[in-house]
Amino acid sequence: PQPTWIRRHGAPKVPTEEEGKRELKELLAATEDDPDHTIIMATVSDGFYDFTVNWLCWMAKLPKIHPYLFLATDEAVYLKLKAVGQPVHLLKAPGQTGTTFTYSTIAYQELMHTRTLFVKDLLDQGYSVLIADTDALLLQDPFPIMEPLMATNDVLYSNDDSRQGHSIACGGFFWLRSCEAARTFWAEVARQHGEMVEDFKRRGVSSVGDASEQSIINQIFAKKTFPELRHQPLDHMQFRNGYFYWQLNLRTPTPVLVHNNWIIGRDKKVARFQEAGLWLVNQNNYCPTPDTQVGLTHPRGDQPISHHR
After folding, report:
1. What span, in angstroms and rounded, lies between the C-alpha atoms of 6 and 3?
2. C-alpha distance across the termini of the chain, in Å
3. How far apart are CA 245 and CA 197, in angstroms?
4. What pairs with residue 212 in β-bridges?
5. Which tens digits make up the pLDDT trace of 191-239?
6. Which residues pair with 90 in a beta bridge?
7. What is the dihedral of CA 246, 250, 252, 257, to 10 degrees?
8. Which residues is 70 bridged to in the sheet?
9. Long-range pairs for 262-267 at CB < 8 Å and ≥24 separation?
10. Structure pTM?
11. Chain centroid offset of residue 271 CA
12. Distance CA 140, CA 145 (A)
């Protein structure tokens, strides 16, 4: 059967620039009553559509669904998500047509710079943002743990370091308050990120290695460029990276977040999730549930799971 959204509104189409702006305005307005004043933003592509479904399968298990927005980097994934009523905005990197990107390539960093600029725009509009990668699964609601820290910090982030007692900010789970200190900091991240991408393109390098907005963030933190910026890593066992969860096999107690990083390659990431029982997607890109099979809508009905319940 056709998804409910299509039955009500007709098949979705790729929006014009003006239609996209109006659509985004409506999506953002729907988040303004959230008590945490934060929108979760996940960047998605058609090449990783099954990761998006898996992320949503886990979101549907949470006792409370916080406002979120998908940032679609290609038309195919935009249309798929729109067809099932998901909050999605189309924002492609200029000149890009691909749907699968490798971490260490210039194309991937161009895509991430587009995201960096989009986050800057949201912060400038007064929205606090939690950047969340779709390979970072929320197994529990993070906000009860984060809220006391949000009250005294401008930036919070999961820890990407493999050493206990040390900290490397991870760009795949990164919260920014919409305040002057965080806006100034992120504007500098965006500026340096753009310069980095242009430099790589000018030199025509085939691989950028680990250079990214994450490396820029950590350089800024190390240099203490913005002493007024209050920032703090989240507990590495509650917000567990791929090194601790898979390479050290620290599976218990159940963390709030599991990030499938410290490995490159979509198939390797899928295999990891499957081995750990964290891959809920079936062959048809649905989330199996005890009584029915749901796609990207809430298992108790047709309302998108982006809404509170």
Report:
1. 6
2. 25
3. 32
4. none
5. 999 999 999 888 988 777 778 899 999 999 999 999 999 999 999 999 9
6. 72
7. -60
8. 42, 88
9. 262/162, 264/102, 264/103, 264/104, 266/47, 266/48, 266/51, 266/100
10. 0.88
11. 21
12. 10
Q: How confident is the model at residue 290, as a pLDDT?
A: 43
What number is the average pLDDT over the span 106-110? 82
Q: What is the pLDDT of residue 238?
A: 97
CB neighbours (10 Å) of residue 13? 11
The answer to whether the CB of 84 falls within 8 A of the CB of 297 is yes
Range 149-177 average pLDDT:
95
Query: In Å, how far are 233, 242, 244, 273, 300 from 247, measured between CA atoms?
Result: 21, 7, 6, 13, 37
pLDDT at 97: 54
User: Which residue type does 217 have?
Assistant: I
Classify residue 262 by burial, with Cβ atoms within 10 Å: 0-12, 13-18, 19+: middle
Q: What is the rounded distance in angstroms from the CA atom of residue 258 to the CA atom of residue 135?
A: 8
CA 289 to each of CA 58, 84, 258, 293: distance values in angstroms, whole numbers, following the listed order: 12, 17, 21, 6
What six digits make up the tokens of 264? Answer: 């490159």
> Average pLDDT in the 263-292 region?
84
Residues with Cβ < 8 Å from 147, sequence gap 6 or more?
36
Q: What is the mean pLDDT of residues 254-271?
A: 95
Query: Do the strands 155-159 and 38-44 form a parallel or antiparallel pair, or are they unpaired?
Result: unpaired
Strand 231-233 relative to strand 287-288: parallel, antiparallel, unpaired? unpaired
Which of 173, 120, 177, 174 has its CA nearest to residue 150? 177
Task: Name the percent of the chain lying above pLDDT 90.
Answer: 62
